[in-house]
Amino acid sequence: MRCFVTVAEKQSISKAARELYISQPAMSAHMNAIESELGAQLLVRGRQTHLTSVGEVVLHGFRDILAAYEQLESDVVDAQEREYGSLTVGFHGPVNWLGVADLLAEFRRKHPESQLHVLIDTWANLLLQLQEGAIDLAFIELSEVEGLTDLSWELVKEEPVCAVLPRDHPLAKRASVSVRDVADEVMLFPDARISPRFFHALHDSFRNAGMKVENVGSGNHYEATITLVISGSGISCMPASLHSGHGDTVACVPFSDLETHMRYGIVWSRKQVNALASACASFMCSHIQ
């Protein structure tokens, strides 16, 4: 069919043969076979090759069939990506942070033939891997991605920053605390490299509220920071979702005068998003509470 359409468009068997990288005798044989199969003369051969009236009908029919086949090929690729593709999702947090593990399990049940991979890393590293094409989707604090035109994102949750205190700390049973209440404490921040833009803004918020941020320690991961809090080395600050699972050993008390919130989004590269990743992003955005 494609040979016949090309002959009709080029008005030449030899030109069509060159276009499709086959020999002229082979192209002529294709045309003869089509005419024989349909039982009608389709071409008037000469210095230029013209279509007969029947050939015009066949040309329109072949074009429709080829267009339908190309659409079918596209639909098959989309279906394979959606049902059988590979998906790598990254996040930073506890194992079932924001219920992500349970939601991925539910999504996996809806797409049983897909291959699912999960990566836990810092937001900064997840951002780099998104841009390099190593992962498909990532949950990232959105201050890290704002202004980056190669990425798209959807907000999934916003949380205030809380004071994380040992359970026996005098402030642990308070409904809220102010920055002044903890101004003399050793503040243990997670390593700023986890999310450079966010922690720069957070440090500024503490300074603006009267705390000397220089009086700090740090852990290289939120779990390490919580371990330092449990050990009595100081207090920390993070959203409640990042210390879930440690409720028996630490208390999470909201700050009453700290404006900085963490805003989590699901982020993907505009250059490489596939049907499976799009389906997963939509599913997560609609289900995370």
CATH class of the largest domain: Alpha Beta
Tell me the strand percentage band.
Answer: 15-25%
Radius of gyration computed on alpha carbons: 31 Å
**Assembly status:** single chain
- Please tally the β strands and state the result: 12
Uncertain runs with pLDDT below 50, 5 residues or more? Answer: none
- CATH-defined architecture of the largest domain: 3-Layer(aba) Sandwich
CATH topology name of the largest domain: D-Maltodextrin-Binding Protein, domain 2
CATH superfamily of the largest domain: Periplasmic binding protein-like II
- The N- to C-terminal Cα distance equals 54 Å
Question: What does this protein look like?
Answer:
The chain is α/β, with parallel strands linked by helices and 289 residues long. The chain has three domains: 2-82, Arc Repressor Mutant, subunit A; 85-158 and 264-287, D-Maltodextrin-Binding Protein, domain 2; 162-259, D-Maltodextrin-Binding Protein, domain 2 (3-Layer(aba) Sandwich). It is 41% helix and 21% strand. It contains nine helices and twelve strands. The strands form three sheets. Strands 4-3-5-12-6 form a five-stranded mixed beta sheet, sandwiched between helices. A hairpin with a 5-residue loop joins strand 1 (43-44) and strand 2. Helix 1 (2-10) packs across helix 4 (53-84) and helix 5 (100-110) crosses helix 9. The radius of gyration is 31 Å and the shape is rod-shaped. The two termini are 54 Å apart. The relative contact order is 0.15.
Q: What is shown here, in short?
A:
The protein is 41% helix and 21% strand. With 289 residues, it is of the alpha/beta class.
